[in-house]
Amino acid sequence: xxxxxxxxxxxxxxxxxxRVMVDDLIGVFFTEVSPINLKEHMPIMYxxxxxxxxxxxxxxxxxxxxxxxxxxxxxxxxxxxERWLTTWEYTVNELFSGTKADEAxxxxxxxxxxxxxxxxxx
Length: 122
Ligand code: HEM
Prior knowledge:
It comes from Phaeocystidibacter marisrubri. The chain is an all-alpha fold. The chain is 73% helix and 0% strand. It is built from six helices and no strands. 18% of the residues are buried. Protoporphyrin IX containing FE (HEM) binds next to helix 2, helix 3, helix 4, helix 5 and helix 6. Protoporphyrin IX containing FE binds at residues 26, 29-30, 34, 36, 41, 44, 48, 61, 63, 66-67, 70, 76, 80-81, 84, 108, 111-112, 115.
């Protein structure tokens, strides 16, 4: 089944967060470096991925910006981005398959690579 509704996005993002939040390598970013308020943060992430994959414009933030300030508190290294990305790919593959699922993986890979490059060339 492919990703086609906001409910699908919510299931994907929730499952992904249930993993990264407790990850031994990158969990600390979400819990200590930039402790997230789930009630506020999760809808932003649903909007982001809905905008990316299903069109629309519910997300209007600047994703790169938040990570720059986080990087200033704890260095975001290539291995952190690798863990983020493999967790994302694993979760997408587990729950969905199809064009949008492929797009979710390629888009994430591009952004993660760009972000990793930006954070590590300061
Ligand atoms: C090591 C990799 C990453 C870690 C540890 C991480 C962690 C976080 C954390 C803790 C926040 C909340 C920051 C805050 O509100 O102050 C955040 C926000 C966000 N992240 Fe990441 N992130 C990573 C990579 C990515 C990638 C690759 C993407 C995109 C594909 C992404 C998309 C976003 C978006 C859209 C937000 C919300 C920004 C906003 O509030 O407008 N993140 N991330």
